[in-house]
Amino acid sequence: MAQLVKLLDYVSRYENDLSRYPTQYIRLKNSQWKRMKTQWEHGVDLSEWQHIPDEAEEPAEEGKWYSPLFRLFGNRKGRSEEAEPIETANDEQDDVGVLDFNPNIIYNPKTEQQLRKLYLDQLFHFQLKWASSTMMEKSNLDASFMRDTLLRSFTQQLPDSYLLFYYPILKVKKAPVELDIVLVTPIECLCITVLEGEDAAAFIGNGDRFWTKKFGDKESRVLNPFIGLSRMEKILLGIFAANDIDFPIKKLVISRNGYIDYPGLPFDTDIVDRKTYGAWFDSLRKSTVPMKFNQFKAAQSILDLGQTTAVSRLFEEQMEQGEPDNNE
Hints:
The chain is an alpha/beta fold. It has helices at residues 21-41, 68-74, 89-98, 112-130, 149-157, 225-242, 277-285, 293-303, 313-321, and strands at residues 3-7, 137-138, 163-166, 169-172, 175-178, 181-184, 189-194, 202-204, 210-215, 218-223, 249-254, 259-261, 269-272, 311-312.
């Protein structure tokens, strides 16, 4: 499952420590699946399934860093580029308290396939929670993301080593700028703009500001997606250059259910439509490349400019309980 690092301008767990959470998430996902699958195989009724002890999350002690990836950031000399974690007792112990993943099993699955689907659906909700809250803050998650099939397919089907920024809002020269989809893989940064409408609609493009969308006898205009893609690329190139990061950027226009006709395709841009989407997505899914140091540097540089809108959990609890403000 690709890791949802940033969603719009929501507060994210990954903002706390990008070098720590990705490896913890992977361990949590694998260990909880193994535990659930073992219990299911032994006939345990999973409708009453509960997570290993639920403890309050505590911040890391000052000067104490659990993740080996942080040590990789702090001491690069002589290290491998691959960011392979070395599990320690502290890592495993820390996971229990910090990673609060409690699947809500509403029925007892009959097949392993049903079990896996149920688990991945719960894990998707957990990812949305991580991408919209921390221990101290919370953003107002739009319920439409629960039904977003593109977001769900990216997070549920792509490798754990992929870091996903889904329409992130960045602060560029003190002004908020909303990007489209940014997928940071171990080997490149994918800038993705989505063109979707009615099923089997056709998008006919050229170098003008607007493209034509045809569906049946109806025609309409849509903004040339290359405009937004070029803007995204320019912003990311600037971010990487400012942080001395050498990381390739690739631009894509995708449409899962439509057709795209653009005869003069730029050399640095790919088009993926209904005819080729399945093969393209499968090629991403089959990647076995582990997380890389440059990948983390690139993702961190983007995350550092992320705009965050959130409220204090303590303030929200006081408002719900009707407690007066201390300043009054």
